[in-house]
Amino acid sequence: MTENSPDALDAPSPRPVRQWGFLVVLSALFAAVLNSVGIPAALLLGPMIAAVIIAFRGGRLSIPAPAFGLGQGLIGCMVAMSFPASVSGEVLAKWPFLIFGVVSVIAVAALLGWALTRIGILPGTTVVWGLSPGAATAMVILSDSYGADSRLVAFMQYTRVILVTAAASLITTAMGGAIPHAVSAQIWFPSVDWLALAGTLALAGGGPLIARMIGVPSIGLLLPIFGGVLLVNLGWLQIELPHWLLAIAYTLIGWRIGLPFSRPLVMHALKLLPAIIFSALALMAVCAGLAALFVVFAGMDPLTAYLATSPGGADTVAIISASSDVDTPFVMAMQMSRFILILIFGPPLARFVAQRSVAAGKRRLGD
Q: From residue 337, how far is each of 9, 100, 163, 322, 341 by CA, in Å?
């Protein structure tokens, strides 16, 4: 086995304890720096940047599924806390914009994937799966079952998530929507209602566990959200989320986004990097255009409109919304609606577009 062979690149890296140490230190450092300049979601972005650096430099760390599920579940509980009892009426009042935004983002992603596949910028079915907005992990898993290059799909998905997260944070800061000193002003170790905390942890851990048991791990975020809203409104649960616990959740999500960016994966996709970035930026630009329509025709504030239509993951958008002065219920209603529709209709839609594009390519070769 040569030093530069794929097997050598995939060999386990030594001293994982040291890598974890570097990851923790770098995460804390970047989070502190980003927070000091007022970037929202600093506790997410700092660990995400640190994880990308560690992974690209040869680190072979990964977040265990139960740990990531708990982080996702805690974010779901946080989102459930932001949904007051009147949220249904607030969202229903804007239902035309909600439906238009959700369907438009999915349709634009499918059309963009079809166009890039037709002109041969990116290979085969991969681009269609890679451009599906949201549900990144689900799209990576499903893409492998339908003949796409799951490594390239993962690279496309997580590149877009990073670009969307960074852009949303910068735009939030530029628009003055960040809540001043949102992190530093928090009481990190407040007095805790331990019974309520136990119930919150049960919901946060139980939702993703049930999702994995029924074979649909991608709904691990949805179950704590819907379960939390239901249980809180019934008076059966009080969600208790001390800031130190949320920081752990943010860190786990950030690491989960950044750690797949290993050197072999990046080198595999390097030739296609300009096209991957172009496709991600094109989708982001279209979504920004939809946000502008919301501002003009719905009288929505620009930041709420931008975050609602943003083609990133629902969990990262939830974190940014929580540290920003926006209409969080509407933002999350649109993100969750799109997430559900992607899970239901994404695979057949991606398969249909990809098959049509491949058939068109064969006809061109025949001509």
A: 40, 11, 22, 18, 6
